[in-house]
Amino acid sequence: MGHLLKPLHERMKGRVTLFCPASITGVDFGDMERQAEVQISHEGKRVVLQGSLLIGADGTNSQIRRMAGIRTKGWDYNRFGLVLSASCEHGHDSVAYECFRESGPLAFLPMADGRFSIVWALAPTEAMRLSTMPKPLFMKKLQKAAGSDVIDRTGSITGIGKRFCFPLELTIAERYAGPRLALVGNAAHTLHPVAGQGMNLGLRDVAVLAEVLSAELAFSDPGAPILMQAYAEKRRLDVMAVSGFTESLTSLFGISLPGAKKVRSHALEMMQKTVSVRTLLLRQAAGIGQVESMKMPGELAGKNSGKRAKKRVGNRAERGAA
Known about the structure:
By secondary structure, this protein is an alpha+beta fold.
């Protein structure tokens, strides 16, 4: 995340006022026609912020979502995700691995510095036991769980970072937007980490919201109801499709009936050999198919909005020259 946050903070410097750390004490959408209001506690003082649009990006247990009265649907998987970083002899060569085990999936996700980010779905008691296990013993357990197919490619696990646990759940907001409000990321949807789709989904939230806010109407009122409705409608199909996909995988690989493992292995082998199916799944998992359908309709975004922006810039330059 540091690779994302550092350039973001650099871009915001001098343009955005940060109140950090701070806690939200109240949100009021009231009857204000053009403004939402947020009350925060910052450095022991009460601060009131007003704006045309409030973006809730405060995670699975979003205070903003709750204060806006938006309910959620979903369930607890009775599983915990054990998260850590790990170094391997041969590195990752930009390849991710997902191993399906009885307790749940074990994912090896490549990081920029050559290490893997590990996400291991486990029963609560097993997650607690492994999170406090001595490092050498834990590394052996992790290597065994990964299996020879993965370890033969990555080499032995040579080191691990600090271990963290978090509950796995499905939480989807009934609405992704409201009066002067847009929810993004885990505040709008929290999925099972199988297939690693949560962050991709959040990035597409931001991309669609940016597209909505580039509409001509947003220049005068970025929180206009029609824009918030457009954002919510644009995101719903993508979120439903991805959550359905992850739930299907979780259910499929959770079946422990006799012969189920053999059937799954055969199905995966067939998928690997069928180029059209493999390509379709890869496009969906990478988000390419969803990105291609994210553009706003021309009548809302304004087909000539880019030309208008260039004209405004040109007019300002002419006035400056005069």
